[in-house]
Amino acid sequence: MGKILNLAYEQDWSKKSFSLHKAQVCAELSSIVYQDVQEYELKKASRIHLVASDLYRSFVRSGKTSSILDALNGVKLDARFFVVRGRYSLVFGTIFNDVVILAVRGTVFRKLWDWKANIDTEKFYLRGGRFEFFPFEFTATDLGRQYFHKGFFESIVPQFESISEQIKEKTNSVSNLKIVWTGHSLGGAMAAIGYAIHSSRNGHMLLADEMPNDAVCAYTFGMPRYCGLGVICGFSGPYHIYRHADVIPTVPLRRMGFSDSNREYELTESGGVAPTERTDAFGIANHIPKLLTSIKSHSIEGYAELIAKGTGKARP
């Protein structure tokens, strides 16, 4: 953790432009959150399609729980930490100087971990300044009809109050904080939604009123599609880094009304990144079997290793 903090301190987090070095910090923090494994997750381990993290798989195989994130505040490091555990998500906060990085991951309490459930999903609509839920529809996209993936949305937004309380408790002042959201896989989708709502709190969105200060940026890795085109056009989006062979970013399908993030970068095997346009090349019939062979390309460790190759800074 000390080495990750060294990398974090080297960055200027006030700048909102894309940075591979910031992506490396966020990828490492997105990896660390998989070290927290609670008893209820082990009991539901059979539900997991084990594609998210090599380290997480080792914890599940061992049958042992871990609350290592809670112990970080007892370690002499130049930062403060907190953990918010919900039924469906875990948020790990790292605070240093005037920066707060919120690393999000999903838990295995619900069926969101069953990736086949994401092929046939529900939408959570925003309309008239309030939220309304409508059944799934195969219709043309209307930019006036903004919607998020319902399961991802309800997994992170209810955590805002707890996150805010922890930030206020751990900081002397919240007036100048720069808040960064990050996450991998399901956690990436939740972080993207958290960032979208948080960065809109002074505009037309009121759900994040209790969240302190401003969300300056978000970095996500191998995340599924989390919203429709209306949200992409109306809300701030994350810097999403994906790998070509990773199938998770191709679900839910575009034909179901879900859209790619507007700021995406393909991560190459040499560690380089470039804006690209991707397609649902696998096809709906091939998505399920492809999920079973996507472990190597989707694991957070794989993302972190390639990004480290690109920055020239070894993984901590």
Shape assignment:
globular
Question: How many runs of DSSP E, i.e. beta strands?
Answer: 11
Distance between the termini: 8 Å
What is the SS-derived class?
alpha/beta
Mean pLDDT: 83
In CATH terms, what is the fold-level topology?
Answer: Rossmann fold
Number of domains: 1
Q: Figure out the total of helices.
A: 12
Q: Record the strand order, biggest sheet.
A: 1-2-3-7-8-9-10-11
> What percentage of residues falls in helices of 4 or more residues?
25-40%
Radius of gyration: 18 Å
User: Which stretches of 5+ consecutive residues score pLDDT under 50?
Assistant: 128-141
CATH class: Alpha Beta
Largest sheet: 8 strands, mixed
Identify the CATH architecture.
3-Layer(aba) Sandwich
Bin the strand percentage: 15-25%
Order of helices and strands: HHHHHEEEEEEHHEHEHEEEHHH
